[in-house]
Amino acid sequence: MCARTRSFQFIEIYLPIILCFQWPSFLTLTLRVKPDKDVKIEVDRIIASFRKLRKRKVWDVKRGIFSIEIVKKRDWGWFVHLHALVDSKWIDQAALSDVWRNITGDSYVVDIRRVGNPKLGLREVLKYQTKIWELNEEDKEFVEKTFRHKRFINSFGIKKPENPNFKKMKCKICGGNLEIMPDEVPVRRGGNP
∠ CA(52), CA(9), CA(148), 5° rounding? Predict the structure, then answer.
């Protein structure tokens, strides 16, 4: 199943929930790029670090959905970061950065900002986990093999609803199955969903 298909599925599942967020905010957490680090270890590291962050005092968040994104930088190796749409009244960015550095030991670049349109924030979180089209064949094969059964999208403080009555269609790009709500456009022409 292609990333676009997964993205549409998750948007339809989580959109009714995030529209109820009282204070939707978009969060980005990064790990320092280390050319010699194994990307699989770094993905596990950011997930474990995020779990620790959610137990810290600075974390005043009710619920959220997050995704892990990996990007290949030509001379630097793999860049691993986390995007989240969270329901939080306020998180001080400087304090968040200090706590993130304390947890990771070397990474402090974070961003949190209020979202005007929760649906666009959700799309940003869910759009893709890697820019597969930017990778050479060797890296594509590596990503597909290494992360085949890895969960890159998750939520906390949310009970995932049962899938509503989805309509099945074929993706015009990859030919995979699309499951979308009736009256939704399955593939937008040009750009990312």
Answer: 60
Q: Could you tell me if residue 28 is inside a domain?
A: yes
Question: Which CATH number fits the domain that encloses residue 99?
Answer: 3.30.70.1910
Q: What is the Cα–Cα distance from 182 to 193, expressed in whole angstroms?
A: 17
For residue 38, being part of any structural domain is answered with yes
Does the residue 153 lie in any domain? yes
Question: How do residues 66-93 score in pLDDT, each as one tens digit?
Answer: 998 888 877 778 888 999 999 999 999 9
- For residue 35, the enclosing domain spans 3-180
For residue 185, is it within any domain? no
Q: Which of 182, 20, 14, 28 is nearest to 108 (CA)?
A: 28
**Mind listing the pLDDT tens digit for each residue in 77-134?**
888 899 999 999 999 999 999 999 999 999 999 999 999 999 999 988 987 665 666 7
Residue whose pair of structure tokens reads 């970061």 in the numeric block:
81
Phi-psi region of 190 (alpha: psi -120 to 50; beta: other; left: phi over 0): left
Give the single-character DSSP code of 133.
G
pTM check: above 0.70: yes
